Amino acid sequence: MLRNRFVFVNGLHRSGTSILFKCLREHSDFSGFHDTGVMEDEGQHLQTVFEPALMYGGPGKFGFDRRTYLDETSPLVTEENRIKLFYQWKRYWDIDRTYLLEKSPPNLVKTRFLQAMFPNSYFITIMRHPIGAGLATKKWSKTSVQSLVEHWLLCHEAFASDMGHLERVHVFRYEDYVEDAQAHLDAIYRFLGAEPHPNELEVKNVNEKYFKMWAELKAGRRTGRDVEKAIARFEERVNRFGYSLKEPRALLEMDL
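Now predict its structure.
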């Protein structure tokens, strides 16, 4: 456990974590879960130390339940649980590789807990526009636009607060990643101290259809009020992360 580096990929559902995880997994020095039989090969479903997000409402909802937020003060942080979690995940890793990858959306609100469990940890966080990530999640959560944006904010604000407690963290936006995936992967490899590796997987920007959906909802007789309330309530908080609900295609400076 001491000779490996644990790399946790963080980001809400539909934030680009899956394609990022797959790109990193292609590197010969990395081992990431695959063919596990669970949803998106997510480590949250391959262990019994902590509850998966589905126990707290699932996509678009889990962030409203305080029980999903874990840090180093959690009673779950014990030597017994540390060994248990490692051995449950170890079955799906090649521990002869230097970097052991794990990706699960709830990681975003568990970074301090994971660092306490595995001190030799690195956190790679990808953020996607709350409109893109939120509306892509709506089919599962079946919640309002306001609720989806608020959920996005609660989780990202918690992560931003936790960042100062993390020893090794790298943050970037999905929108920048899809414009030049190789450049961002190279930056990640430098952050990790790994050799560069060419990316051969297709990385696409799928925000546009959700921006169009947002405009349609805003113009709708029954849905327009929900969108307008979301903008009025959350625009300034969303701006902090470099996004805008008023002008979805505009990218602002992040203030983390």
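Strands lie at 5-10, 30-32, 99-103, 121-127, 169-173.
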